């Protein structure tokens, strides 16, 4: 089904039930120590969560040469590819997706778990016929938060990463809301709010919250949708909406 630097993903079947599963095979000897710690964090978190829109881990095995994560199969590909194919979403389609994502993140945040790498590539479609059957995946950067601002590791994906991470500040759950703001902007506008070929310039734009709603693309979009995006892309994390606040926003 796919491969990465340290792993391959293969389709398999449960011998007892016949159910199709995806097995992520990770070679132990090629995995650096910090990646082993991250994998164990990921497995620990996946064991503790169960939500209809978060990818389900069926099992985890350790052998002398490999680790195996047994996950549910998602045959519809990444939301990223669907966005490229469609260019942009109408408000109802975008709202359905954002509501699902916020609901999953609200569930995680209620349990003090932050994802830290929300982006369309990590939202998987159950099948190619229904965009609303999505699952949040890739918990490699997910972390349990002790207190509101307990994290300091710089991680995430350029373009989606929150300003407080780039500034080197202590941060918490609010970084996920920033990323959802970016995703919502992309769904409705068809392009990212922060973009520059020069990474230093891109990071400067993110840190200052320098984005606009260009009239030629955004005039048809409702004020409520733009208000939600603006409140999620608020540089001051203390004034940024929480997942619960966002779920109660008039646009949702």
TrEMBL record:
<dbReference type="InterPro" id="IPR017441">
    <property type="entry name" value="Protein_kinase_ATP_BS"/>
</dbReference>
<dbReference type="GO" id="GO:0005524">
    <property type="term" value="F:ATP binding"/>
</dbReference>
<feature type="domain" description="Protein kinase">
    <location>
        <begin position="1"/>
        <end position="252"/>
    </location>
</feature>
<keyword id="KW-0106">Calcium</keyword>
<keyword id="KW-0808">Transferase</keyword>
<dbReference type="Pfam" id="PF00069">
    <property type="entry name" value="Pkinase"/>
</dbReference>
<keyword id="KW-0418">Kinase</keyword>
<keyword id="KW-0723">Serine/threonine-protein kinase</keyword>
<dbReference type="GO" id="GO:0046872">
    <property type="term" value="F:metal ion binding"/>
</dbReference>
<keyword id="KW-0067">ATP-binding</keyword>
<dbReference type="InterPro" id="IPR011009">
    <property type="entry name" value="Kinase-like_dom_sf"/>
</dbReference>
<dbReference type="InterPro" id="IPR000719">
    <property type="entry name" value="Prot_kinase_dom"/>
</dbReference>
<keyword id="KW-0677">Repeat</keyword>
<feature type="binding site">
    <location>
        <position position="24"/>
    </location>
    <ligand>
        <name>ATP</name>
    </ligand>
</feature>
<keyword id="KW-0479">Metal-binding</keyword>
<protein>
    <recommendedName>
        <fullName>non-specific serine/threonine protein kinase</fullName>
        <ecNumber>2.7.11.1</ecNumber>
    </recommendedName>
</protein>
<dbReference type="GO" id="GO:0004674">
    <property type="term" value="F:protein serine/threonine kinase activity"/>
</dbReference>
<dbReference type="InterPro" id="IPR008271">
    <property type="entry name" value="Ser/Thr_kinase_AS"/>
</dbReference>
<comment type="similarity">
    <text>Belongs to the protein kinase superfamily. Ser/Thr protein kinase family. CDPK subfamily.</text>
</comment>
<keyword id="KW-0547">Nucleotide-binding</keyword>
């Amino acid at each position: 089904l796919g491969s990465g630097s340290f792993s391959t993903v293969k389709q398999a079947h449960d011998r007892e039930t016949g159910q199709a599963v995806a097995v992520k095979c990770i070679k132990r000897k090629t995995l650096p120590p910090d990646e082993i710690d991250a994998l164990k964090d990921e497995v620990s978190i996946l064991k503790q969560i169960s939500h209809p829109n978060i990818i389900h881990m069926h099992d985890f095995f350790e052998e002398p040469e490999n680790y195996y994560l047994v996950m549910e199969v998602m045959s519809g590909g990444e939301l990223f590819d669907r966005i490229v194919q469609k260019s942009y979403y109408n408000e109802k389609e975008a709202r359905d997706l954002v509501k699902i994502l916020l609901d999953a993140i609200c569930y995680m945040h209620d349990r003090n778990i932050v994802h830290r790498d929300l982006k369309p590539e990590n939202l998987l479609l159950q099948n190619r016929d229904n965009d609303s059957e999505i699952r949040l995946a890739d918990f490699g950067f997910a972390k349990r938060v002790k207190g509101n601002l307990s994290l300091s590791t710089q991680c995430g994906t350029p373009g989606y990463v929150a300003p407080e991470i780039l500034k080197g500040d202590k941060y918490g759950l609010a970084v996920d809301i920033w990323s959802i703001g970016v995703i919502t902007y992309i769904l409705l506008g068809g392009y990212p709010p922060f973009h520059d070929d020069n990474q230093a310039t891109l990071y400067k734009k993110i840190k200052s919250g320098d984005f606009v709603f260009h009239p030629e693309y955004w005039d048809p979009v409702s004020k409520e949708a733009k208000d939600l995006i603006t409140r999620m892309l608020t540089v001051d994390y203390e004034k940024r909406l929480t997942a619960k606040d966002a779920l109660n926003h008039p646009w949702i």
